[in-house]
């Protein structure tokens, strides 16, 4: 029955993305959406010729070989550059890339489309390939009754998100490999994820017979699904207010869900977006309890099997509630975000474990680069030699033969090693850090020895060498955070090198930004490529103060507004609206997943640009995005932590330094060395701020005060010498600060319970023609470097002016 096949489980709030398409003037040819294109005037080459040209440049995975070791089958994927698509280029399935040609063939042959979406490092994608797509019986049936299309989700997240949404609405399931069946017009009517081979063949047979015998029912199902998907991107009927109370309620709900005990055998994901949001909230509100709970989660992740204790870095997720057994692929976006979380946590807790984990993760990231100036590779495979986790797991017999008796005992005590193992008879290492801290034992020597053994004796996982702009943007931002927290100058140098390379090679004024670029391939950027690169450029600008990075961030943002902004909603499409042709539905989404959504980061960037430039168009665009998704923020804040961060920037200001005021004319940063606080204020040429002593009562003096007397007190404060000037808007002389100045203060912690000291800097900026409204900037600094004031007097005046 078609009703049994085509489930109708509409799920509110499901994600949806419009498929990407593009037309270029190359004679009268409609160009491909995803695969590389034949140049104008150049005759397409055959699959056999393409194989001869590419032979030796990629691994051949098929088991169907002739006596000389050459593959028996070669399909259209041989023309592609994607590592994932090339893995399937020699399946007996007659795979096509996502091209107009494939859809035209489906129409001509009156066949449904079998769509399979995955990525090169996906374990279950490999399993389904071996079980089904390499099976001659299944392949023959697919070739006879379907047009088979393969998509690399990392190259084309818009196509992935579109059909991920459809499959979720049809079946309630999401994951990869993603399996969907479409009409020749690309409208989905059936979907799932991984299927065992016999079940898969049975489903294909039922779908094919239903397509032949009950076509109207299928088309009706596809039409209904398309209607429901369109509703997801409709203009919001009601915009809910977002205020301090909303942020507080959302923070509590997100933390409650993040820190809840996992269910039995529930997969465990790091959930970096939520951790980054809560980290900033704990800093903003000096919430020691929240910081402690985050620290406990980070300790758990650092001890877990998700963490590669031998080589550094993190696997994508765990398959058990105890965080012991991972799926072994390593993704760039996980490394970047987790390194950033650990770096920020170290910056505000000074926990040396967090510094160690951050550095090891950065070191692993830096080992996966395209030369000295190129970007980071996207991922490492879960498998080696066809076995999941083979590079990472340890048979007990091997450990017993390679380690001394004492070292083996240490491995058993501190690294969870047992004779029976915890993964298919082998051991995934995880650390008993509490035992390590409470005894004289150390796992360092054992791990060093295992690192050498692994490097010398094991086949490393395959590396997917594509450089994705969005993920490299994440890595740049992480490196800047690492530089600021750990003071490793080469992190900043590397970040700037990659940022320059992306500007030079991935962006052009004519074509815009590329998601993936190489001499052989160019794929147009999606929304998250723009937003993550803009964020990276803003992070570099904040660290270096070089104006070119701000200019580049604005250039990309203006291009994003032109190409991605939906005029009806004020939010952003995931695909360039000018490149879309004949797609199933438009998609506007702000649901965070493994990364912040494109709309979330867009709103954050727009808020930051407003603070740095004073241009109210950025503020208004940020507000429009937040307003469109305000219902989601209230109903499911755990899916909208990135939007909440953007809203917090607009409502409360930025939690992390540097801070900007006076329409970007004033930049403020602070640093703490033991008890001594230095506040550096940079004022643009042609502007000044009032001195700490003013000669006119109506002017606001510069002042520094503690916001919470119960946490920190200021023992002394020193302002720089003021300059006396006469300006055009009044006759009387003024005392002002201009250029770069430093305010020095001596602090003392008045309560050991506070994790973050909060101070307020009050300024008023003026030019020689106008004075702006006074501004109050919150400064936050970790209290772990402060001594506790045993004799604190709560009657002390903690708003101090000059003491010279």
TrEMBL record:
InterPro entries xref list: 6-hairpin_glycosidase_sf, 6hp_glycosidase-like_sf, DsbDN, DsbDN_sf, Ssp411, Ssp411-like_TRX, Thioredoxin-like_sf
Gene Ontology BP annotations: carbohydrate metabolic process
Xref: SUPFAM superfamilies: Six-hairpin glycosidases, Thioredoxin-like
Domain Spermatogenesis-associated protein 20-like TRX: 74-229
UniProt cross-references to Gene3D superfamilies, sorted A to Z: 1.50.10.10, 1.50.10.20, Glutaredoxin, Thiol:disulfide interchange protein DsbD, N-terminal domain
Origin superkingdom: Bacteria
Domain Thiol:disulfide interchange protein DsbD N-terminal: 666-776
Pfam families: DsbD_N, Thioredox_DsbH
Protein name in the entry: Thioredoxin domain-containing protein
Source species: Arenicella chitinivorans
Lineage: Bacteria, Pseudomonadati, Pseudomonadota, Gammaproteobacteria, Arenicellales
């Amino acid at each position: 029955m078609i009703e049994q096949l085509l489930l109708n489980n509409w799920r509110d709030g499901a994600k949806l993305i419009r498929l990407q398409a593009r037309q270029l003037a190359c004679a009268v040819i409609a160009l491909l959406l995803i695969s590389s294109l034949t140049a104008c005037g150049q005759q397409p080459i055959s699959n056999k010729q393409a194989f001869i040209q590419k032979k030796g440049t990629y691994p051949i995975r098929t088991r169907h070989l002739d006596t000389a070791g050459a593959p028996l089958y070669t399909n259209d994927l041989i023309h592609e550059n994607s590592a994932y698509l090339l893995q399937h280029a020699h399946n007996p399935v007659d795979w096509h890339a996502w091209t107009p040609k494939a859809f035209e063939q489906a129409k001509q042959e009156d066949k449904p489309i079998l769509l399979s979406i995955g990525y090169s490092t996906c374990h279950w994608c490999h399993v389904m390939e071996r079980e089904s797509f390499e099976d001659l019986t299944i392949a023959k049936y697919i070739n006879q009754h379907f047009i088979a299309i393969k998509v690399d989700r990392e190259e084309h997240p818009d196509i992935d998100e579109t059909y991920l949404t459809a499959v979720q609405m049809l079946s309630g399931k999401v994951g990869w490999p993603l399996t969907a069946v479409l009409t020749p017009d690309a409208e989905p009517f059936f979907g799932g994820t991984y299927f065992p081979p016999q079940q898969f063949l049975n489903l294909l047979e039922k779908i094919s017979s239903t397509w032949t015998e009950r076509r109207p029912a299928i088309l009706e199902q596809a039409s209904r699904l398309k209607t429901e998907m369109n509703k997801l991107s409709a203009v919001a009927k009601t915009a809910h207010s977002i205020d301090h109370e909303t942020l507080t309620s959302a923070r509590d709900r997100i933390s409650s869900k993040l820190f809840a005990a996992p269910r039995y055998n529930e997969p465990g994901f790091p959930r970096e977006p939520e951790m980054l949001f809560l980290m900033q909230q704990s800093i903003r509100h000096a919430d020691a309890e929240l910081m402690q709970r985050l620290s406990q989660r980070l300790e758990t992740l650092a001890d877990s099997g998700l963490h590669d204790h031998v080589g550094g870095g993190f696997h994508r997720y765990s398959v058990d509630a105890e965080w012991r057994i991972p799926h072994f692929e390593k993704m760039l976006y996980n490394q970047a975000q987790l390194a950033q979380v650990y770096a920020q946590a170290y910056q505000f807790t000074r926990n040396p474990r967090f510094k160690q984990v951050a550095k090891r993760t950065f070191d692993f990231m830096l080992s996966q680069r395209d030369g000295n100036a190129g970007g980071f590779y996207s991922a490492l495979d879960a498998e080696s030699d066809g076995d999941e986790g083979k590079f990472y797991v340890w048979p007990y017999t091997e450990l017993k033969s390679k380690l001394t008796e004492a070292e083996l005992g240490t491995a058993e005590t501190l690294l969870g090693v047992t004779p029976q193992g915890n993964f298919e008879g082998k051991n995934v290492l995880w650390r008993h850090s509490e035992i390590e801290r409470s005894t004289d034992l150390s796992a360092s020597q054992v791990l060093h020895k295992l690192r050498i053994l692994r490097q010398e004796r094991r086949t490393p996982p395959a590396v997917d060498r594509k450089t994705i702009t969005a993920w490299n943007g994440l890595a740049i931002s992480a490196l800047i955070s690492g530089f600021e927290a750990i003071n490793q100058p080469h992190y900043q140098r590397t970040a700037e090198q990659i940022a320059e390379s992306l500007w030079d090679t991935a962006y052009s004024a004519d074509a815009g930004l590329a998601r993936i670029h190489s001499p052989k391939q160019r794929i147009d950027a999606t929304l998250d490529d723009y937003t993550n690169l803009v964020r990276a450029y803003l992070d570099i600008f904040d660290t270096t103060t070089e104006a070119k990075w701000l200019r580049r961030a604005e250039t990309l943002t203006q291009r994003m507004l032109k190409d991605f902004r939906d005029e009806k909603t004020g939010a952003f499409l995931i695909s360039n609206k000018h490149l879309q042709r004949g797609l199933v539905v438009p998609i506007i989404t702000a649901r965070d997943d493994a990364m912040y959504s494109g709309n979330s980061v867009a709103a954050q960037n727009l808020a930051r640009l407003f603070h740095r430039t004073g241009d109210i168009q950025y503020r208004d665009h940020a507000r429009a995005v937040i307003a469109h998704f305000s219902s989601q923020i209230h109903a499911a804040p755990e899916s909208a932590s990135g939007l909440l961060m953007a809203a917090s920037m607009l409502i409360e200001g930025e939690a992390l330094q540097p801070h900007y005021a006076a329409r970007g004319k004033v930049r403020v940063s602070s640093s703490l060395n033991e008890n001594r606080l230095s506040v550096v204020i940079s004022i643009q040429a042609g502007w000044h701020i009032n001195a700490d002593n003013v000669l006119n009562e109506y002017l606001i003096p510069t002042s520094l005060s503690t916001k919470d007397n119960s946490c920190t007190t200021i023992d002394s404060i020193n302002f720089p010498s003021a300059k006396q000037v006469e300006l055009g808007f009044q006759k009387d002389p003024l005392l002002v600060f201009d250029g770069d100045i430093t305010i020095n203060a001596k602090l003392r912690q008045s309560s050991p319970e506070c994790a973050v000291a909060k101070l307020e800097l009050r300024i008023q900026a003026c030019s020689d023609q106008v004075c702006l409204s006074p501004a109050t900037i919150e400064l936050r600094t970790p209290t772990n470097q402060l001594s506790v004031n045993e004799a604190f007097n709560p009657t002390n005046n903690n708003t101090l002016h000059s003491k010279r």
